[in-house]
Amino acid sequence: MATIQKKFGDKLREIRNEKGFSQEKLAFKCGLHRTYISDIERGARNVSLKNIEKIAKSLGVSPKSLLE
Question: Which ranges of the chain have pLDDT less than 50?
């Protein structure tokens, strides 16, 4: 069974790809490091609410959509 971190990372990757963003572009836009975005997508990071909000704003989606 996938962890919640992995499920979140998979959803982030899905939305990022739909928006046509590379990990680097998303990282730059939300002020985070590219390797941090990569770690999130692999389920290796437990993301804070603050960073979920930054990522969602940068993607033009609600934080809720990253958690569904």
Answer: none
